[in-house]
Structure formats: structure tokens, C-alpha cells
Amino acid sequence: MTTPTDTTPAAPGEPAASASAGPAAIEGRSLGRIAWLRFRRDKAAVAGGVVVILLVLLAVLAKPIESAFGLSPDALHQDLLDPDLGSLPTGSFGGMSLSHPLGVDPLQGRDLLSRIIEGSWVSLLVAFGATVLSNTIGTVLGVMAGYYGGWVDTVISRVMDTFLAFPLLLFAISISASLQGGAFGLHGLPLHLAVLIFVIGFFNWPYMGRIVRGQTLSLREREFVFAARSLGARGPFILFKELLPNLVGPILVYSTLLIPTNILFEAALSFLGVGIQPPQASWGGMLNDAIKYYQVDPEYMVVPGLAIFVTVLAFNLLGDGLRDALDPRSN
Q: Is the pTM of this model over 0.85?
């Protein structure tokens, strides 16, 4: 028995109703939108992303902020120091006040807020610069090793193993110590700053190279690569037009996890006295200066330590969130 259909005539002036409703429209979602919806549900990752954006804006706008509020990382405020207490800041909590919200440093009386802002520019510049350098080298060599295979893969893999065998910390200490001082590039960029970016980035590329190589080994067997070959595409086209766009996700995730590692590495070198050199402000250098005052002025150590902690934590939360959002196997 068939189900009777509704044949009620339409009212005058109205279109006749369809006997059966058509299929409901299905809203398609792109991979980017799916990843964004996954990322947005991760509150910790969103919070980390907001902090990262604020830190980047703070670093980029460091000079305008200092000019607008009359801050200077090198200005001395000797009137805020007590000579009877060994030139420690007067008042409580390191001399905190409305004009100096984070206080001033002992002995010289420099504003800590302005030095933290200046240090954020230095740390992010080194971290981003080293990450871009290592990612560029690692991505190009990794995708070549994974796609071509054979002797190309063997040679590049052995080069990776050789670079990984270098004692990076000792090498960076020796190179940075031998090249202290001097100026380089635009606006008198310190030579040791450029050396830090080069050393950290140049000797960290094998990590990205291995990740890209592994991803390429699986992607080269996919249908879109075979289709490109059947249409006459050659190696360079397949590498940079077919494979590389599909590697953006892993590269982005690893970059957000590599940046905090580079920040810690730069802070460690500056703490050891072979990284960013005074009078340039750096978080690691401020921690080094605070060692001899940690008992009488602990706030001086807390401020740069907290800046490093918050920055590294924010990037790690952002990286974890991006990894979960871009992973097609996640729920």
C-alpha cells in the first residue's frame, strides 16, 4: 500500500506545495574551519594564544610604548635608591609605585617595566629569527629527502645526524663569547644578537628536517602525487606545489613548540653572560644580575623569571592546542 500524498490545493496567489520535501542542504566545512572549531573549544589554547598575541604586540610596539609613557630601560633613578642599604630600592616590593609599577633594579635604579618590555623584544626576535632559519633549512632538506629517497635521503639523513652530534650549548657559548661587542646590520643591531639567531637556528634545523621527512614519506604515496606525476609534473613542482602545502600543519605546530625552546636557550646564554650583552636588556641577563640580591630584593628575580615562565607556558599551550586542532584523528 502506498502512502497517500497531500494534494490540498494551494491558496490563490501562492505557489503549489511540493508533494515531497527535497533533501536538506548540507553545510560543508573546510579543513581550516574544522581546525578552528576544535581550537576554539580548547580554552587553555585560546588563553595561550591571547597571551602570545599580547606579547608579540608588546615586543613590536616596545619603542612607541616607551616613548608614549616616558619609559626608558637605561634611565637611572638614583634618587629611588637607599645608599645606607647598599643602593637597594626604597619602599616595599622593590620600590613599586605608580611611576614604576614593577619597581627599579638595585644599584642603578633602572625601571623594571621598561626593561621587561625591552627584553620581550630581544627574546622574541631571537626566538622567531632562529625558528624561521631552522624551519626554512629543515623544511627544504626534509621534503627533498622524503620525496627523492635513495642516495639523496641517505646523504641528507647523515648530515642531520652530524648536526645533531654537535654540543649546541657549548658551541653557542664559545662562538658568542668570541664575538661579543660590535655592531651589525641596520640600526646598529649587536653582532652577538645576530650570532645568537644564526647559531640557534642553524644547528636546530635537523629536528624540523626529520619531522618533514617523515611526513613526506607518507604523502608521496598519496593519490594527488600520482595524479600530478601522470600529468607530467616534475620534482620541484611536486615538492613546492603539492607536498609543501600539505606540510603547513606539522610545520606550524612544531614552530609554536620550538619558539619557547629558543626563548629558554637565549635566556640561558644571557644568564651565563655569553648571550645578550649589557646595556641591552634581556630576561636572562636580568636574572643573572638578580642573583646577588635574591635575599634582600627577591622581587628583582621574580619579575624576569615570571616573564619567562608566562611566555614559555603560553607558547606551549598554543602549540598543544594547534596540534590537537590540526590532527585529523582527534575528536
A: no
